[in-house]
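hey m, so remember when u said the tokens were messed up on ur end? i reran from scratch. heres the input so u can diff it against urs
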Amino acid sequence: MSIFAQMETLGHEQVVLCSDPSIGYRGIIAVHSTALGTAVGGTRWWTYSNEAEAITDALRLSRGMSFKNALARLPLGGGKSVILGRPGAVDRPAWLRAHGRFIERLGGIYITAEDVGTSLADMEFIAETTRFVAGRSSTSGDPSPHTARGVYRAMQAGARVKWGSDDLKGKTVAVQGCGNDGFHLAVELARAGARIIAADIDPARVARAARECGAVEASIHSIHSVEADIFAPCALGAILHDQSIPELKVGVVCGGANNQLLEPRHGQALADRGILYVPDYVANAGGVTFGGSIEVLKLTRDATLKRVDEIYDTALMVLTRAAADGIPPSEAADRLAEERIRSGRPG
């Protein structure tokens, strides 16, 4: 499918291909929608198999940000950018500064922040060449504890709908990915008295989760198929597909990863198996909710934390609507987000 065909299918406004041959930098900036406000979304640094894969990732991630911000009731649109990494050493600060220059040229319709493969320190390099950076140490800071808190609250909502109680004490949660979001989620779960099974491509991350949260280690290749109550994907997306869904042995799927469904039809595939899916961009909106509330809405920290906790209510609303309409939660969330974007009002 051509880039224009993908843009039309997903409803994108703009895609910018960026290149600085003098240093080897290549990047993509995807602006999905500015109907509710400036497009906001992080910069992902990743080594892709090919350029088409990178474009597809940028398009899907930016659309997810539009929907995430709409359901989080933020006056923000959705965007995302990716830097196409490559094997071997590169001049990382130079690449980040180049990326910032391209963001600056957009004149403020897109604001970036950290994402997979980038950090708060990386945002400082980007900020040397553009004004349009959020989530810096001097502003709202590291979003991962707030992303994890939102996932935890959404998980509570899923448990309430599935089992009649939002108490996670004694529940077994399989956490796939123990990076920033996954580790902080494990901390929340440990406080709640849940049992944690964890996996990550980095053994040191699993060791940390075991040491600080009492997690039990599982193979990264089988974490999705362990016996548990809840599966929490907190790594890369597209983990729920024709091969993995039949292997799930859980009642609820709720995690911090973006784009967990390989294709929209996999939302129905989960429902057909009786597995309750809390849509990813509903659950993982805590980071952008915190940053957006602090930096855009100028709310107090207490008011901002309250908005993060309200992800519980948003998840309940989506799951209730799905049940009433007889559709998968993923479709219910999409419909609600699209309604808000069309109306030009976030809530």
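this time it looks ok to me. The CA atoms of residues 31 and 79 lie 4 Å apart. if urs says something different then somethings off w ur setup not the seq
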